Amino acid sequence: MAGVQGVEKSAVARAAVLVVAAYVAAQMLADIGSLKIAWVAGFSIDGGTFIYPFTFTLRDMVHKLLGRAAARTLVIAAAAINLVMAGFFALVSALPPDPTWPLQDAFVGVLAPVWRIVIASIVAEVLSELLDTEVYHLWVTRITRRYQWARVLVSNSLSVPLDSLVFCWAAFGGVLPGAVVWSIFWANVFVKGLTTLVGLPAIYLVKGE
Fold it and tell me: What predicted TM-score, i.e. pTM, was given to this entire model?
């Protein structure tokens, strides 16, 4: 019996490491991708939108595996990591380039942080992911532990619009025309909604409550 429990705990630990790593990686890639504003199907959309929505389902998986406190800790830790990443890019961008290296301007132009976008992204992430955590927890403790797809769908349906609204207006409000900001917002919500549906079955890949 003890051996079986040990194997189960080991499996949960491995799953938790993989999901946490995937969450942090997706957060970082999304922040880097957000430096590109693309034009897709008539909408302006930041590149991070294509990967960021997976963080909500990954966060739900962490919640299921490790509980609400761990999910909250992960959200704050990922925000701190992204802030360190932006600071690191700023430091590297400021270093004088080797005279033979021709890509300094390109490197600085792409990766030197636009601090308004960085801060907007981190604030939006923290607010929306913490909301997702509380809605998910409320669902499993006050409503039902059945229908796991429903807990993910409900929590994401509230956190996704909040994330998009805060990020778009905090990052681009007053800089881009209002119509463009709303275009980015609606494109964000649409793509994130589709991604939520695609990633929905992932909640069944991990054991927990």
Answer: 0.83
Find, among 151, 165, 133, the residue nearest to 196 by Cα.
151
Spatial separation of the C-alpha atoms in residues 56 and 38, rounded to whole Å = 22
Q: What is the CATH number of the domain that holds 194?
A: 1.10.1760
Per residue of the chain (209 residues), give pLDDT as tens.
555 466 567 777 888 999 999 999 999 998 888 888 888 877 777 888 888 888 888 988 898 899 989 999 999 999 999 999 999 999 999 999 999 999 999 888 888 877 887 888 889 989 998 998 899 889 988 888 788 888 888 988 999 899 999 988 998 888 888 888 888 898 889 888 888 888 878 888 777 66
The whole domain housing 201 covers: 2-205
Q: What is the largest CA-CA distance in the chain?
A: 65
Domain count, the chain: 1
CA-to-CA distance for 34 and 50, rounded, in angstroms?
9
Amino acid present at 209: E
